[in-house]
Amino acid sequence: MKTVSVVICTYNGENYLREQLDSLIHQTLQPTEVILQDDGSSDHTIEIAHSYCDKLNLKIYKNETNLGFSKNFESAISKATGDFIALCDQDDIWEKNKLELLTNALGNASLIYSDSLLVDSNNVSLNLLFSNRLKRNFAPSTTALNFLFSNVVAGHAMLFQKELVEDIIPFPDSIYFDTWIAATAASKQGIVYLPIPLVRYRQHSSNTLSNQKKQKKSLLEKIQNMTHKRINDNHNFLIRIEAFRNISTLTQEEKNLLHQIQKYVTDFQTTWFNWQFFIFLMKNREIFFKFFKKNKVRLSFKNSLGLKLFKKAVFS
Fold this sequence. Notes:
The protein is an alpha/beta fold. It is globular, with a radius of gyration of 21 Å. It has helices at 17-25, 45-50, 69-77, 98-106, 130-134, 165-168, 177-188, 219-244, 252-266, 275-283, 285-288, 296-304, 307-315, and strands at 4-10, 33-38, 58-62, 84-88, 93-94, 111-119, 125-129, 158-161, 191-202. The protein contains 13 helices and 9 strands. It starts with a strand and ends with a helix. The mean pLDDT is 91. β6 and β7 form a beta hairpin. It folds into 2 domains: 4-202, Spore Coat Polysaccharide Biosynthesis Protein SpsA, Chain A, CATH 3.90.550; 219-315.
């Protein structure tokens, strides 16, 4: 029998932690161990966790100093001993057959993920899937380059082979850790997608996804923000490319494509429109824009705009 480690990181999670731990207790495939690592909670999170020690094979760790969300997961994952590792948020609820379905469908792939159902703070369905909320096509993957422009694999929905750990740790500081795990897994033995919502993904006031309110802005402010955003996006994209180049499992073809795209993106500041980049993106659009529902020609065109033309178009 293959063993499963569940890794859950907590921080002041007393309001919802019990429901999440209860959903682990009722899994049709019981985890071999549950590693709970707390990042310095000041509420009753640790006390609640200790009350579950006789119901789960729960191993509790408490950081002496606050590591932050990403480094806390990195540290906790390194402690897992199971053949498979599933990541867990403190405020969600798992469907009872989540681990069973994911482990059965994984096969020889490095990672598998599912969809999620959005619920409110009281666990009432919002009748919206995570894939629809993101407006992305959730799909399997066999190349890290699928994740260069967008990530669809959330940490709370993934399960991966233990052997992947040596390739993903340490996490880079420049990109989200779930993107890093997904890109590395895709490059190694690929990713499987199970199109079933297996997590009730809670939306509440402290949740990033649910706490996005648009403020009214003047036309000038919108123009300025668009310009600054494009400049920042370009800068961050170069950092993202550099992080991807450090994936140890990249094929030579993937390395070559990353080198090409890095060269084109570097020219952003000095060009009006990069036709070579446009042709390059069009040729590889099914790789780079795999998860997008938007028109891939428009995406290729938009990303080929240089700063000069972008500023001219915005201010005209």
